[in-house]
């Protein structure tokens, strides 16, 4: 082989290798592009962290006028979305910065309550829906102040001491709430008594859910 011919062969091999590499890269990127299906955003995930700060974010398609701040609501499924946060403020027994029943949530009778509870504090906390038989919590044990209907972040055998820790959140749905007056409160001993409770009113007079802070 002459020197000129071998140089030509080497250059030809280099060109072929480069073309093969570029072609391969294009094929791979095309396959990747066409083969990737965007995954849907998870909704209402359990035990996921959340950065939501407020109990409500006014829904853009809500047209019913309510006497307070509207809560996110699906009329089709009669589901009210409630986010409650034990905020990291000087009063450790708060929900969304409020204490002692100053927050009142109004929901339609029969609504499903989709509740997310977030703990931003160093103390453990949990959340309970209580059909209360006293106007305000007056016992260390909320079980002595009414009937516990639903719990998040705990269970009936340990609600007086167990809850979720700092940075954790829980989500759950309480279905078909009956007309009446309830608390959402922490069940850990003395926490509700110390202020960690809000009021829930279910009424057939409420057509769309809303929240008021007194
Ligand atoms: Cu608590």
TrEMBL record:
All residue ranges annotated as the Sulfocyanin-like C-terminal domain in the record: 70-212
Keywords: Membrane, Metal-binding, Transmembrane, Transmembrane helix
Keyword Membrane: yes
TM region positions: 6-28
Protein name as annotated: Sulfocyanin
Species assigned in the record: Sulfodiicoccus acidiphilus
Top-rank taxon: Archaea
GO molecular function: copper ion binding
Comp. bias (Polar residues): 42-62
Pfam families, A to Z: SoxE (PF06525)
Stretches the record annotates as Disordered: 33-62
InterPro entries in the record: Cu_oxidase_CS, Cupredoxin, SoxE, SoxE-like_C
Coiled coil start-end: none
Annotated Gene3D superfamilies: Cupredoxins - blue copper proteins
Entry annotated with the keyword ATP-binding: no
């Amino acid at each position: 082989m002459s020197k000129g011919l071998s140089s030509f062969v080497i250059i030809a091999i280099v060109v072929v290798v480069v073309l093969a590499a570029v072609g391969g890269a294009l094929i791979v990127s095309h396959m990747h592009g066409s083969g990737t299906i965007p995954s849907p955003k998870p909704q209402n995930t359990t035990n996921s962290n959340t950065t939501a700060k407020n109990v409500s974010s006014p829904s853009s398609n809500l047209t019913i006028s309510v006497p307070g701040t509207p809560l996110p609501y699906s009329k089709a499924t009669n589901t009210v979305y409630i986010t409650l946060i034990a905020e990291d403020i000087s009063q450790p027994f708060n929900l969304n910065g409020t204490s002692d029943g100053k927050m009142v949530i109004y929901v339609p009778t029969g609504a499903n309550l989709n509740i997310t509870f977030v703990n931003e504090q160093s103390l453990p906390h949990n959340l309970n829906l209580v059909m209360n038989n006293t106007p305000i919590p007056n016992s260390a044990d909320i079980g002595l102040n009414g009937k516990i209907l639903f719990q998040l972040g705990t269970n009936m055998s340990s609600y007086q001491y167990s809850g979720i820790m700092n940075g954790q959140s829980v989500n759950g749905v309480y279905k078909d709430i009956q007309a009446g007056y309830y608390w959402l409160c922490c069940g850990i001993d003395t926490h509700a008594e110390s202020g960690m409770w809000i009021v829930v009113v279910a009424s057939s007079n409420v057509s769309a859910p809303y929240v008021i802070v007194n």
